[in-house]
Ectoine hydroxylase (Corticimicrobacter populi), 594 residues
Amino acid sequence: MILAATDPYASRTERDSAIVMRQEPVVHGDGHYVDVLAEAQLQAYEQDGFLVLDGLFESREVDGWLAEIERLMHAPDIRAREEAIREKGSDAVRSIFRVHALSPMLARVMRDPRVTDIARQLLGSEVYIHQSRANLKPGFKGKEFYWHSDFETWHIEDGMPAMRAVSCSILLTENTACNGPLMLIPGSHRQFVSCVGRTPDAHYKDSLRRQEYGVPDPISLQLLAEQGGIRAVTGRPGTVVFFDCNTMHASAGNLSPWPRANLFTVYNSVENRLATPRYGLAPRPEHVATRETFEPL
Amino acid sequence: MILAATDPYASRTERDSAIVMRQEPVVHGDGHYVDVLAEAQLQAYEQDGFLVLDGLFESREVDGWLAEIERLMHAPDIRAREEAIREKGSDAVRSIFRVHALSPMLARVMRDPRVTDIARQLLGSEVYIHQSRANLKPGFKGKEFYWHSDFETWHIEDGMPAMRAVSCSILLTENTACNGPLMLIPGSHRQFVSCVGRTPDAHYKDSLRRQEYGVPDPISLQLLAEQGGIRAVTGRPGTVVFFDCNTMHASAGNLSPWPRANLFTVYNSVENRLATPRYGLAPRPEHVATRETFEPL
């Protein structure tokens, strides 16, 4: 499948930046593919582009997953893999991608009906894992991550056709105002910010650490933030955030001594499987954007 | 006057980092040099090393001061001065030093009894302005500022003898969790973190933008933060924060579109006037550390 020439979500072209209205619904189908979220929760997600679920998991469960991630981050065979991303200017591992393939324990978490049923309800279909990772923003050294829409990247670099994917972040440590929590712009998911500038080939290695392409312009960002404000997601371990693939988000540096850890899964609709990347780009590797299987979980 | 050879607050030596107990009281004299703060407020300042006063100024006063600062930041004669500090990698002015000498309006604010009486009460004496500045952390571009004790710098680079100075920050815009608010470590003022490494001459120009010297080690910082936690000061315009010269503080980058502005005055006790800088360093310029006059306000 090749994306249509008249792509509504063109980006990184020679043109100026632009704000484009979202074409797809936010909650797909009739919103009742399964019924785990209440009507008010569906409406909040529809309106804000995200939903925070306090205490979806127990802290004793979460502690075990955090220990597993710390084990992986110190395991020499994992550290040597392409999946292990280091903090810029440091040897500390910041993220491990494709953890659902590297750890049976974490794979079970990502297939747990408490999260997958929410993804299925929001996307109105069966789902598969487009990308997974464990993030550990280390104390003091954890760097900020600037505003971006994941969908912009996935559409251009991975050939994801439509806004029918949802990210799920399980907080594994206390997230406070001081350790670089996830920040979201409510309502930003209803507008697509077309970015300026072409993407060079194989830039994904760098883009996971530093952002230069697919960066929204300050005028569009200001407009979105003036409209919706900015929400920082703080909460205790076990809290879960679901956010739409097009919700603009960022996180500040971690100036506290306490690491900010989360387990991150992107669920994509099986009806939204990846097509060819734009501009003749080579597909990104399997651990960043799965193509091996689009089978439902 | 030359600082004693057995300086309790030695720092930037060849030795390892160390944590040294504070020698001086936090509230000086009997705490009643004047009586504007209530006993509970004095105790909170004594214990935490800072005090947040909500709504000390009216928003209509504050709006006028912010407009004055914006005027100064765009005035070509001000922008050309050494007092105007630019954001790293940008032409945006981030701070204007010595604003009490550059703007009669702002000088009046810094001499307003609503703030000077608090400084006099805390320091137990008459006070003078050691340093003043207007800070404008611009939206999106405002960078983080790492943990530091101001006293460490003022002691080593300016020859300030004792911990008998207090910083006063008047919030001029809404400070939220998302625009890089001031973060403080409660209780950190009772311990002095001796830092590693010598100071090269005339490094002040750079240090106002980037920190390499007088940086506390991560072990000491972690200890202080584990003991006291971290407090982010958020509040509406007109809120005022007083914090002890040795309270460890930092601020994250500003990822919001909204600038974070404040008016910053360091009051020093007239009984704590500057001596010779350490290690034969040349005195820093007048706009960073006043030496022209130690006359009381």
